[in-house]
Amino acid sequence: MLAQALPEPLPSGDLGGPALRAFFRMAEQWKLRVAEQRRLLGDPPESTFYKWKRQQDGALGRDTLERISYLLGIWQALQILFPDPAQADAWLHKPNAAPLFGGHSALERMLSGNVADLYVVRQYLDAQRG
């Protein structure tokens, strides 16, 4: 039996443009300030951040791609849970009584700077979806 060759994964540089374009559209919908955007992306240097924002392209490290992936998953889960886009976008900013958030908003949890907090928020929303 011959082993079937697995396709080579895309180099992460090929994903930078689409990931950044999606991130900046999402950040606009969520009405995120520049400092919040930078924090969610893992605190890149200001010059790098503004280059990404201006060009909507660039080579991204694994950490930044992972962060954007979690954020896109959070955005998608919110769109499913709240058919009204305004309600979905607002949820992120509202205080949440769930133990995971301790009365703070999901955005506050996400802004801790740890990629694990993005994962936890995404996992929470996926569980809510069922």
Automatic annotation (TrEMBL):
Residues covered by the Antitoxin Xre/MbcA/ParS-like toxin-binding domain: 77-130
Coiled-coil stretches: none
Pfam families (UniProt xref): Xre-like-HTH, Xre_MbcA_ParS_C
Annotated Antitoxin Xre-like helix-turn-helix domain residues: 14-73
Protein name listed in UniProt: Antitoxin Xre/MbcA/ParS toxin-binding domain-containing protein
Phylogenetic placement of the source organism: Bacteria, Pseudomonadati, Pseudomonadota, Gammaproteobacteria, Lysobacterales
